Every structure is written in structure tokens, then in C-alpha cells.
Amino acid sequence: xxxxxxxxxxxxxxxxxxxxxxxxxxxxxxxxxxxxxxxxxxxxxxxxxxxxxxxxxxxxxxxxxxxxxxxxxxxxxxxxxxxxxxxxxxxxxxxxxxxxxxxxxxxxxxxxxxxxxxxxxxxxxxxxxxxxxxxxxxxxxxxxxxxxxxxxxxxxxxxxxxxxxxxxxxxxxxxxxxxxxxxxxxxxxxxxxxxxxxxxxxxxxxxxxxxxxxxxxxxxxxxxxxxxxxxxxxxxxxxxxxxxxxxxxxxxxxxxxxxxxxxxxxxxxxxxxxxxxxxxxxxxxxxxxxxxxxxxxxxxxxxxxxxxxxxxxxxxxxxxxxxxxxxxxxxxxxxxxxxxxxxxxxxxxxxxxxxxxxxxxxxxxxxxxxxx
Length: 372
Description:
- The chain is an alpha/beta fold.
- The protein has two domains: about 5-270, Aldolase class I (TIM Barrel, Alpha-Beta Barrel), CATH 3.20.20.70; about 315-360, no CATH class.
- Helices cover about 40% and strands about 10% of the residues.
- The chain has helices spanning about 5-15, 30-40, 50-60, 75-80, 115-120, 140-155, 180-195, 230-245, 260-270, 285-310, 320-325, 335-340, 340-345; strands spanning about 25, 70, 90, 125-130, 160-170, 205, 215, 230, 250.
- α6 (about 140-155) links the parallel β4 and β5 (about 160-170).
- α7 (about 180-195) runs parallel beside α8 and α8 crosses α9.
- The longest helix has 26 residues, at about 285-310.
- About 25% of the residues are buried.
């Protein structure tokens, strides 16, 4: 993945010192407003001021621990100014939600914003949310593909990273149901494969996990007695989804509990980083690999050490003899002992020589000739 200077700068701005994007998301709008309304005192309105204040308070706290924060330009700009120093900024470009009266959950952009304007507002990266089903009619997906391409071109023109977040769906099917859990792996993998294409200009994919952990047999998060997949099958679905992506991707929590998401990531890292022909990883296998590494290190030392003591025709072995210009009489006694392995053959320790309380040997400064 080759990045232009602007895109590289944007990626660095939202990453921590280890190069990891540890960002917090606070670009929710309609759903957040409803949640705040539900928890507010009766009759309390949740308007622009309350939304801006809430987002600002969240940004002040979370950006002390996050490498960046994702906000919206509608209510999030005061929060962007309130974030901790060194925390990057991603700004959302799409309108919240979709028109449920129209087929296809079609996307739309904020009316008075552009990538250029978002960048001028301080964005290090641009984020887009798209509802997507790779099996939707061509008319619907052609619209979404062209829409995504246009945003990619805008980001290229402004040299800023493009984060594409997609949420899969199937019309008429509850996304929390067993039926959708069985459809989800193919939908997620299809979306990852499609938007990995260079034509869209996407730099990072924000993707759903390809399984629903509540329907994984043997998972702690499993509920009920109906399952969509075994643990082994779920792991294989993670690997297959990862295999079709040619862009970096981030797994979304999708609003599940911390325990469920932690278990999800544990399953993902068990499977999607291993080659399909590898066996499952066990504690015994890890210990065996450690033993092999130790044996390899010992073998290297056995071969290299005899080579070190060979005769040389150069002056390399005696370079230290002329490298030390300090008078031996001025060597601090403790330092002299510490360096004995290196310089002992040139400057032997005077056994039994008393040392001063400061660790320096007692000596008389050499006399100087009178000035001429």
C-alpha cells in the first residue's frame, strides 16, 4: 500500500506511537439524540447545545487515552477543538441514517460540506458510512459504487485518507436474527472484496466481523440453543473474509458489549493470521516453537564463537590499545574494574592498590615542565 505525503501524514495523525489506530467514535447523531432524550428528565429538550456539549465532554475525556476521535461536522466541531493535544481527527461526510421509504438504503452527503471543507475544518481523515448488500439489484449497487468512487476522487484531490465503513443488511431480515447470522459471512466478505478495489480509492476499510458471536456454538456470548456455526467454522469465516481484503481493515464493535467484542477479537486473532494449511495453535505448539528458537540460538553461538578467536592479520584486535588516551593513573578504580574484560590486557589492574573514598585511585599528578 503506497501512500502520498498527505495521506501518510493523515494516517500518522490518527495513529499512536506504535502505528496503531486506537480511535474513539462519537459521530453518532440521530441515535445519540434519541438515547440522550430517553435518559433526560421529562420535558428536557435535546437540541444543538446539548449535543455539542455532550460530544465535547466525551472528547475531553476519551482523547486523553485515544489516538484519535471520529466526529461529525454537524455537532462535533466544538468537540474537535476540545480534544487532547496530539489526538487526531476523523470527520464523517455522510448524512446520518437513510430514507426507509426508498429501496436500497441509499446514501447521501451533508449538504454544505465537501472533503476540502472538512479538511479545512481540521480533519486528518475522511470517513463515510455506507449500507451495502453485494447481492442487491445492479441499479442500487451501481449508484452506491459511483457514489463511493466520487468520494475517493475527492479524497485523492485533497490528499487525505479515506476510511469507508460499511454495514451489511438483507431487506426483510432482522440483523440480530439467526437467519441473518447465516447470511452475514458472505455479505461481509463480498463487501470487503468489492471495496478493496483500487477504483474506489479507499485507504482503510471499517468492517463488521463476519459472524454473530451470539450464534457461535461454544462461545461465552452464545445465547439460546440455536447456532449458525461451530467455533471452528466461525474461525474459518474470519480467515476467508480477511483473505479477500487487499486494504487494511478495522473491525467494528457494532454496539455489542465489551465482553462479547473481546471474545470476538480473540477468535479473530486465533484464526485470521494463520495460513489455511496451518494447524490450530496450542500451548504445546507455542512451547515447542520456543524450544526450537533456543536450540537455533545455541547452534548459532557454537558456530560463531570459534570464528571470533581466529588469527588476524589486521590491527583490529589491538585497536583499543591506542584508543584510550586517558592516563592509566587517572582511571577511576570502579570504572577500571568494570572495563577489565575489554582493556585488561593493555592496562592491568594493580592488585591491592588502595582507592579513594570517591572511587578514584590515589595518585600524584604528573609534574609539568616550566613554561619557556
